[in-house]
Amino acid sequence: MKLNIAVLPGDGIGPEVIAQAEKVLKAIAMEYNHVFTFQHALVGASAIEKTNNPLPEETIDICEKADAILFGAIGNAAFDLDPYAKIRPEQGLLRLRKSLGLYTNIRPVIAYDDLLNKSSLKKKQIANTNILIYRELTGGIYFGEKKLSEDGNTASDICEYTRFEVERIAHLAFKAAQSRKRKLTLVDKANALESSRLWRRVVQELATQYPNIRLNFMYIDNAAMELIMNPKQFDVILTENMFGDILSEEASVIVGSIGLLASASLGDKHAMFEPIHGAYSKAANRGIANPIAAILAAAMLLDHFGLDDEAALVREGVDKSLKLHITTPDLNTKYDNITTTKVGDFIEDFINNPDETNLN
Amino acid sequence: MKLNIAVLPGDGIGPEVIAQAEKVLKAIAMEYNHVFTFQHALVGASAIEKTNNPLPEETIDICEKADAILFGAIGNAAFDLDPYAKIRPEQGLLRLRKSLGLYTNIRPVIAYDDLLNKSSLKKKQIANTNILIYRELTGGIYFGEKKLSEDGNTASDICEYTRFEVERIAHLAFKAAQSRKRKLTLVDKANALESSRLWRRVVQELATQYPNIRLNFMYIDNAAMELIMNPKQFDVILTENMFGDILSEEASVIVGSIGLLASASLGDKHAMFEPIHGAYSKAANRGIANPIAAILAAAMLLDHFGLDDEAALVREGVDKSLKLHITTPDLNTKYDNITTTKVGDFIEDFINNPDETNLN
Ligand SMILES: CC(C)[C@H](C(=O)O)[C@@H](O)C(=O)O
Ligand SMILES: CC(C)[C@H](C(=O)O)[C@@H](O)C(=O)O
């Protein structure tokens, strides 16, 4: 298969982890005779630095022409501390999602047997957890009109949703549930928000088309508790943009490190894959960033094109690295000298030679 | 001291747990020669049933005249499943907060030594956790304009904040931090929301008035993770209405049960005290509702009037009940026949006779 992949490493640890994901994809291409080409482009703070624009035209252009996008992370501490900045790194990511129409963000949360004791949660609490979060990604309060009064003393954001926006992602979530445990949980705040009541109505209506799915509803505050108290009750979670942001980052505690969670952002025409973690500028260039989330994002990219064996091989490599403790310090491994690159190298070697790889 | 207390038991388990809190307050009044009078009023689904109004005029009136309000919980399953209802139980609570100007909601999250093994989190994770959440309660997306298009296909909510609203609660949070570990964490979503950037600016400015406070900023998605990964990093958390709702319910996993968390809602003229849990209609009238949150709400009421010894005695009673496993089934106690009323009775007996109370 020929795939033209746009690579947007972004800021902070983005470039380091994406380099490992790219390496893994190259190994897969070699092993399976695919032709993957990679085109790099700027986004975020590094794009602002060079072009004064968090999402240069050229980047949009490269992304639009690509078959898929591999995205790192954006943001840095200076911007985080400056709530006055008008041009911001995050605009790069948000505008990209919007302009490519990436309305569905899928975040799998799977507890690894080998990591059960790394989690803050008790083992019995999390063993066998397997959740798929469907987060709406181009609507809601992120994209509604924002206002700041002239005197700077009043600020507002609008959270708006249309039936159309809810329906298109809800169908995908119902379908995903059909091939899993057939349970769908809509998370909203219908006791306080008009937009949440719209979600609840539309999803209730669609449910009649999926009679074999058990549908339930949960308020976001309650879901934030239940996700920790009893994560195994969930199969597919469907939710709006902001709630999905919160729940999916929270869910990383189940897996043991946010450095392990990847996501796919899908639209009708485009597909983007990224780790869910941020740019963590503090950790940049120290070799300590966990590349697994980025590598699993690459696996999701392979899934997306039906390259099932290839994706499975990448995941096997990841599993093996975890089993052998070839992991970065966030997972507190036995070895204290395993860098970002070493983890990538290990998985690359595994792909080149699945039967022989061991700690070296 | 003479106190005129408005009691709004509300729906579901509200009346059962509030009855225990009232009993405890009566025991305190007896023991310390106070005169507490209690005036009951309707709110929520039970008010809708009787008056078609979730917050009858009479209830507002009673609350306005009272020195303090003891609130149970509102809502029921039928309304939760009906996103079309125009009159809703929650409006009772939300309008009450707004009309009494209760802009500061304070939620303490304290890990009990005796319950460390009840939490989903590992012991070492949570031991000694002591967090105070300051949640803004009368602004933000709960109270901004709500719209539903005529065809019912577009819905929106506005999240608006003014400098004034941020300042008044921020000062209180800074001051609270001064008498604690001197750390304040503002939780917001300043990388996506204009209203959050206003929060960050205002709090940054005020910080110059509190030079001995370590101030840091955290995005809500990150905070939802950090609260579980490393709860001990927090001292006072300050946040807007919706984020506070989510974080404080999530924080209940640290304590082991949401049936243990109480809150105070304060304004310039009025003060209301309530458990943070909901109405759980499913659990109603079965004697299984944990009254501790309501009883601790009563303790916060005593705090509010400077009745420190009285509040301490109530808390001692609560501690003793936990130590002796006189607790409802949510805490999986040794005994399987401890009802809501029994827990209340135990604490009442303890107050009447602190030195002699034991399991009977
Ligand atoms: C960087 C930020 C705007 C972004 C979001 O909130 O969507 C991030 O947290 C994410 O989840 O991808
Ligand atoms: C009932 C609901 C509207 C309320 C809220 O979201 O404020 C509740 O969850 C709370 O936290 O008191």
TrEMBL record, chains A, B:
EC annotation from Swiss-Prot or TrEMBL: 1.1.1.85
Protein name listed in UniProt: 3-isopropylmalate dehydrogenase
InterPro entries reported for this sequence: IsoPropMal-DH-like_dom, Isopropylmalate_DH
Keywords annotated in UniProt: Amino-acid biosynthesis, Branched-chain amino acid biosynthesis, Leucine biosynthesis, Magnesium, Metal-binding, NAD, Oxidoreductase
Family designation: Belongs to the isocitrate and isopropylmalate dehydrogenases family.
Organism encoding this protein: Mariniflexile soesokkakense
Stretches assigned to the Isopropylmalate dehydrogenase-like domain: 4-347
Any one GO molecular function term: 3-isopropylmalate dehydrogenase activity
